[in-house]
From TrEMBL:
GO terms for cellular component: cytosol. This is Glycerol-3-phosphate dehydrogenase [NAD(P)+]. It is found in: Cytoplasm. The lineage of its organism: Bacteria, Pseudomonadati, Pseudomonadota, Gammaproteobacteria, Pseudomonadales. Catalyzes the reduction of the glycolytic intermediate dihydroxyacetone phosphate (DHAP) to sn-glycerol 3-phosphate (G3P), the key precursor for phospholipid synthesis. PROSITE patterns: NAD_G3PDH (PS00957). Residues 181-321 form the Glycerol-3-phosphate dehydrogenase NAD-dependent C-terminal domain. It comes from Halopseudomonas bauzanensis.
Amino acid sequence: MTDHKVPVTVLGGGSFGTTLANLLASNSVPTTLWLRNEEQASEMREQRENTRYLPGIKLDPQLTVTTDMASALSAAELVFLAIPSGAFRSVLQQIGPGLAGKGLISTTKGIEQPGFLMMSQIVEQEVPEARVAVLSGPNLAREMAAGALTATVVASDDEALSAQVQDVLGCQSLRVYASQDRYGVELGGALKNVYAIISGMAAAMGVGENTKSMLITRALAEMTRFAVHMGANPLTFLGLAGVGDLIVTCTSPMSRNYQVGHALGKGLTLEESIARLGQVAEGVNTLKVLRQKSLEEGVYMPLVAGLHAIIFEQQPLADVIGRLMSAEQKHDVEFSAFMASTPLTKEQK
Ligand SMILES: NC(=O)C1=CN([C@@H]2O[C@H](COP(=O)(O)OP(=O)(O)OC[C@H]3O[C@@H](n4cnc5c(N)ncnc54)[C@H](OP(=O)(O)O)[C@@H]3O)[C@@H](O)[C@H]2O)C=CC1
Ligand SMILES: O=C(CO)COP(=O)(O)O
């Protein structure tokens, strides 16, 4: 790590934006957190706490909180984007040329439709002169904010940018691993949210431990099958941004997607489940987008089809489970052919 830390801005004052900004500031990185709500911003400045999204976590005294986008961006070399996917493009469009030349790191785990676009692809469209990376992994905001030992992945073609992100974020509680498979890392973060909804639903129904394990493992097989079809490296899904994030989101009641699934499993409607949460659960929209894409691409995704049938086609749960359990019994691990055709590099050996 270097002594001199580049100035960083985080866009988005929700649970993850606040967590990242606080971590950066406590790493002695000059950090500004931008959010859109002045009432919330002034409360955060006065009380040194984000009572709406991260109650109980004290904000570092050095963290600057503002709603003034121009001042937030003027000095920043790196900008972390923690805006929900539904608003991601419109926020970038409001900023425009203010981001040119900066290192932009998306932390958003969603997919834009139409186009089936990852957030970093939206960054490339809206800010063609930017340097682009994504950050993803098993990173429940509340735990990270409380200092739990955590690991994450920065993925970019730009190795210097990945190194800068490792430098500003890495600390005694957070390890930042690098990857060059930006698409795979981003896809992993978005897809696992759908399976977290299923896992939450299953937990609410009181399923057994075997069932939970089957769900997570078949979820990994399904999301990897889709990702490989879309051009990602299956090995990425063995890492933190794949199976790592899948495990945490499918097992922790802290996950908002899991909570939506749990509420659905207890009999609440989708609208009630979302309203009760009061935070973003990206998996609901990703489910719609993914179902459509899997049909277009002809990728077999029985769990996605099943959840879609329950939530959006009002099919009885028992029918869906019956269909899943009586489907053709196929292969456990599907990528032996890929592995055989991809020799290990010198470093991997
Ligand atoms: N929380 C977590 O554990 C993690 C989250 N992520 C990802 O980070 C992204 C952000 O999630 P998270 O912080 O958790 O979400 P939250 O629901 O906690 O907060 C959402 C934030 O986005 C703001 N926002 C919404 N729309 C706009 C807009 N048009 N302009 C500006 N700000 C807006 C909200 O502001 P307002 O209050 O004014 O509506 C709020 O500050 C998601 O894609 C999520 O998947 C990734 C890793 C971990
Ligand atoms: O992505 C996350 C953990 O890595 C957060 O998951 P939720 O959005 O379901 O809370």
